[in-house]
Amino acid sequence: MPSPRRGIRRVVDAGMDYPGPSEIDDSSEMTGWTSNIVNYYETAGETGEYIYENYYNNFEDDSGNFPDNDGVTLSLNLSGDTLSTLGSSIINVGLKHYFHQIQAMKGWVNSGTAPMIDYDPMSNSPSSSLSAGPTPVYSQTGRYKQTTISMGHIRGIDYSVTSLSVWSTSTNNVEEYLRNTGEISIGSTA
Question: Comparing 43-52, 86-95, 145-154, which segment has the lowest mean pLDDT?
Answer without folding.
Answer: 86-95
